[in-house]
Amino acid sequence: MADYDQPSGMGGHPSTAASAAAQQAAQAQLKKVKKQKVLLMGKSGSGKSSMRSIIFSNYLARDTRRLGATIDIDLSHVKFLGNLTLNLWDCGGQEAFMENYLSQQRAHVFSNVGVLIYVFDIESRDVDRDLATYVNIISALVQYSREAKVFVLIHKMDLIQPMTREDVFDRRVALVRRKTAEAVAIVRKQKPESQPSGPGGPAAGSVPQGSLPSPSDLSTPIPDLEVEMQLFATSIWDQSLYKAWASIIHDLVPNLSVIETQLASLGVAIDADEILLFERTSFLVVSKWTSPEGESNPYGDRFERMSNILKAWKHTCSKFTGTPRNAEQFSDFEYKMGANFSMFVTKFTTNTYILVCMPPGEARFNSAKLNVAAARPWFRFLDGPSMIAPTAGMGSSQMLSGLVGAAGGGGEA
Amino acid sequence: MASAFRRGSDAPLDPSTETRPQCVSRRTSRAMLNLHRVYEQNRQRVQQNLKDGAKVPEPIAVPHAKGKPRLLLMGQRRSGKSSISSVVFHKLPPNETLFLESTARIQKDSLNSFMEFQVWDFPGQIDVFDNPAFPFDMDAIFGEIGALIWVIDAQDDYLEAVARLNATILHLQRSYQHINIEVFIHKVDGLSDDYKLDIQRDITIRIQDELSDQGVENAPVNFHLTSIYNHSIFEAFSKVIQKLIPRLGQLEAMLTNLCRTCRFEKAYLFDVNTKIYIATDSTPEDMASYEICSDYVDVIIDFTEVYGSWQRSPEWRKRLEGPPWEQKLEDQVACEWAESGMVLADAQRPIMLREVDRFLALVAIMKEGSYEKMPQINMNVDVVVKGLTEFFEITKSKMTPTAVPGGVTAVGGGNGVMNGNGVVGDGH
């Protein structure tokens, strides 16, 4: 999404060397997309490192008890889908560290941020204090990285009685939203003073800011100073964690529109009810496609459930084979439920697994498996930065023509 | 179709779905002749044994074997009895057992599966044998054939528990000798392996000494190390329940045969609801195989719940049965029951699953390179499944008052195995 929208936006610029500039900008954009700075913040003990370990290092929920407190910032580079690297800044949440981030390391920590993930512990005793810290963090973020997306995770929801969970969550959402608005308002007031002195970053979000005329800075930025935020109720003991992280990842994946179009063409070609594309190590859903019939599935949480199930299964396999947790565990999983449905999960490209749920029938199943194998080349761009994605239209039309023969052959077999 | 993988499939038995599967058409092939030979040999051996007066396994003579087998859970209070029954029979996540209330009265559950069981959970504070205020009807409790499961908290002082267990065993030995006594040395998660064995040895010695002092030898007491936080509790229950299955040997023989002919490493017959395995082949058991097979069943249950538990629209069906297929959906599938296969990344030891009936599923770990022969294996499994279905039909009817003589059971069971042999012979 990011790749393809940006150049057209630049096209609006009244520039003479339009095409060259656009290309350069696109390339710069590509580089920027490839490395995303993700801040993981929240009070000490709220569960930041635990969730990171579960999602990216294949920990079991109960194994996270072993984790100690994070000291200062724990930097990790998570390779995701070959052409996206997440620079994950797991920021230790003890107050001394927090103050440090907000004062001495302020520019270092908060500039160039793609995504801020802020974790609230729902069981926390001192909510006001948590919120005060949160307001400070948000104002620092808005000051240095205005386009950063914010995801707020209300964590440890398993400790709340199931009956009251929704209520508690809604109330907390309202509170956090109000505080976010407050934080933004503070920055708005400060704006005139902070802008000249603040190291707005020559390399930082310079593209959109540079295009703004600096004298009118005082008046123009105020209306569009909005924080794009999403809130999730999470717990490491169920699939809710996968839901939150899948949406965090969703916006960061490059070429998402291409993936989606191609997945849809594949789905139609093989007559599937649902297709899910998972990242290999985290089993987060990268993209999905559902047929009109599949939409009537009453389980709205099925995507994160599948992530959770497959992740647990992977863990079982690693125990059985004695191979490391992060290694690849299974290559193929078939399941035919009589005249009800069939499904298979199989290794797709180097970095992905694909799950296909489809109507029953042996011939249909076998041809779908062949077709999925045949469609692999069209998703190969997911594997490396060097691969250039085919444009959406061309890719899907060619892919379709490549597939039809196979489907016919399978049908007759 | 009623399936074991559909949750809440507790519908009453529908006689129409219980039709007896027809045996494969009989033709005299070489394999068939071979079978006949094996069968004859077996029969002669049995007769030989009979003549020699050797002990033929026969159902234990129990006066009232008409009801359902009963599992009695007993032990000190807070030893984990209710947690065990909730985790095993009600699928409660282990970490939620912390919130269970203490049991105040006898909790009676019945477990509907391939066999019907009753599970009675006794409150720890009640001593069944020494309760002058409200004497229990001993026959009502211990009259049925079954097992007494005595739970001992290994992380607590267990001397009193052992003393009470001894008293119980002595009581039972006097009048209800048919009851198996299974001691669960519980809550052993987090204890080191050495320490676990030390505890087990200590408890075993204490019980045996006490019993032999009282002149009781060879009491049917078995020990299991268990915890609800791993698979050990399921494995222990599997062992307990296997002892209650009539003609378990036949079942095991069928599975062993299947393993040999299909080159399986290990095969389990699972009760899907509880993940207890009711039979396995004769190769040595190891925990790792059981764990992965049991988790496999879990994954299949989850998949089925998400994608198989809702009704598709008639239009969907119409489209799928229309051109170019022109066949009813039921005819487009090869097998009306759930079947699944899985290949590990290193391409070794694939795993397969096949649903047997409403309650049971066959799960097997295969050997390297056998996944390519899946169609053949599926045929073999099909035949064994038919044999199993026959087996259960015969043993089920034996439980009812109009009992079929034991000899027929053996032949019926043998038949299933033989069928299994026959197709396998053709295949190889």
Annotate the secondary structure layout:
The complex is a heterodimer of chains A (about 425) and B (about 425).
Chain A: H1 2-11, H2 18-34, E1 35-42, H3 48-57, E2 73-80, E3 84-91, H4 95-102, H5 106-110, E4 115-121, H6 127-144, E5 149-155, H7 165-197, H8 206-211, E6 228-233, H9 240-250, H10 256-270, E7 274-279, E8 285-290, H11 302-321, E9 330-337, E10 341-347, E11 352-358, H12 362-375, H13 392-412
Parallel strand pairs in A: 1-3, 1-4, 4-5, 5-6
Antiparallel strand pairs in A: 2-3, 7-8, 7-11, 9-10, 10-11
Helix pairs in contact in A: 1-2, 6-7, 9-11, 10-13, 12-13
Chain B: H1 30-52, E1 70-75, H2 81-90, E2 107-112, E3 116-121, H3 138-142, E4 146-153, H4 159-175, E5 180-186, H5 193-213, E6 221-225, H6 232-242, H7 248-262, E7 264-271, E8 276-280, H8 287-308, H9 314-321, H10 329-332, E9 338-344, E10 351-355, E11 360-366, H11 374-399, H12 406-427
Parallel strand pairs in B: 1-3, 1-4, 4-5, 5-6
Antiparallel strand pairs in B: 2-3, 7-8, 7-11, 9-10, 10-11
Helix pairs in contact in B: 1-12, 4-5, 7-11, 7-12, 11-12
Q: Class of the largest domain in chain A in CATH?
A: Alpha Beta
Largest sheet strand order of chain B? 2-3-1-4-5-6
Cα-based radius of gyration of chain B, to the nearest Å: 24 Å
How many beta-strand segments of chain A? 11
The largest pleated sheet of chain B is described as:
6 strands, mixed
- How many structural domains can be distinguished in the coordinates of chain B? 2
Number of separate helices of chain B: 12
Largest sheet of chain A: 6 strands, mixed
Number of domains of chain A: 2
Which pair of protein chains has the largest interface, and what are the residue counts?
A: A-B, 45 and 46 residues
Based on secondary structure, the structural category of chain A is: alpha/beta
- CATH third-level topology of the largest domain in chain B: Rossmann fold
Whole-number mean pLDDT of chain B: 77
Q: What is the CATH superfamily label of the largest domain in chain B?
A: P-loop containing nucleotide triphosphate hydrolases
The tally of helices of chain A reads 13
Could you give me the name of the CATH homologous superfamily of the largest domain in chain A? P-loop containing nucleotide triphosphate hydrolases
